[in-house]
Design goal:
five-stranded mixed beta sheet, 10 strands, about 30% helix
C-alpha cells in the first residue's frame, strides 16, 4: 500500500497471473483520506497493452474507488517473466461537487498546484493451479486407464497364449503313456485269463485219463 496525503493506493505492485493468448485483469483501490473531493488520473508507459477503467475519476471525501487494469492477450512469453511496464497515478484536490466530466488535463499540471503522484509497477506471476483430488490424474504419477490394448498388451497376451500351448504340448506325452499303459494292462489281463482256462482244461484231461486207467 502507498500512503499519500490525498489518496491511499492498494496495491502498488500489480500482479498479473500471466497466460498466453488470454486477457488478464488486476484490480486496485484508491481511498480518499481527506474531506475534499480528489480527482485522479492514471498513465502508463505502454498504453496499447493495457486498458484501465476508470482511467480518470473523482473520489468523494473519505470514499474509495475500485480500478480495474486489464492486460491485452499476449502472443509471446516475456523474457524470464519480467516486465518493465509502469503506471503513474496522479491525484489532486478537485472543486466541491466536481464530477469526472469536470476533470481536465490542466488540473494535473504541476505548475497549477500540488499534484500527488504514486508509481505502480507490474509483476508477472505464474497462474494458480487447481487442487487435485485423489481420483484425478497428474498427482503422484498416476494416469487414466485406457479401454483398448496397445502393442505391448498384445505382445504380453501372445506370450501367455504361447506358454499355455507349450504346457499343453508337454502334458500330451504323459497322457499318451498313461493311456498305453492302461491298454497294456487290459491286454495282459486278457492273456492271463486264457492261460488259466487252458491250464485248468489240461489238468482236467489228465485227471480223466488217469481215472480211466485205474
Amino acid at each position: 500500500m502507498s500512503t499519500g496525503e490525498l489518496l491511499d493506493v492498494d496495491p502498488v505492485e500489480m500482479k498479473f497471473p500471466f497466460e498466453l493468448k488470454k486477457q488478464i485483469s488486476c484490480s486496485l483501490q484508491v481511498t480518499n483520506k481527506t474531506e475534499n473531493h480528489v480527482a485522479f488520473k492514471i498513465k502508463t508507459t505502454n498504453p496499447k497493452k493495457y486498458c484501465v477503467r476508470p482511467n480518470i475519476g473523482i473520489v468523494s471525501p473519505n470514499g474509495n474507488c475500485d480500478i480495474v487494469v486489464t492486460m491485452q492477450a499476449q502472443k509471446e512469453l516475456p523474457t524470464e517473466m519480467q516486465c518493465k511496464d509502469k503506471f503513474l497515478l496522479q491525484s489532486v484536490i478537485a472543486p466541491a461537487g466536481a464530477g469526472p466530466k469536470d476533470i481536465t488535463a490542466e488540473m494535473f499540471n504541476k505548475d497549477q498546484g500540488k499534484v500527488e503522484e504514486c508509481k505502480l509497477r507490474v509483476v508477472y506471476v505464474a497462474p494458480q493451479q487447481p487442487p487435485f483430488s485423489v481420483g484425478e490424474e497428474a498427482d503422484e504419477g498416476f494416469s487414466a486407464c485406457n479401454n483398448t490394448m496397445d502393442n505391448s498388451g498384445s505382445e504380453a497376451k501372445s506370450r501367455v497364449t504361447k506358454s499355455t500351448e507349450e504346457k499343453a504340448a508337454a502334458a500330451k506325452p504323459g497322457n499318451k503313456m498313461r493311456q498305453e499303459t492302461d491298454v497294456l494292462k487290459k491286454k495282459t489281463g486278457g492273456v492271463s485269463s486264457i492261460t488259466l482256462v487252458i491250464v485248468i482244461g489240461v489238468i482236467g484231461i489228465v485227471i480223466a485219463y488217469l481215472v480211466k486207467r485205474t
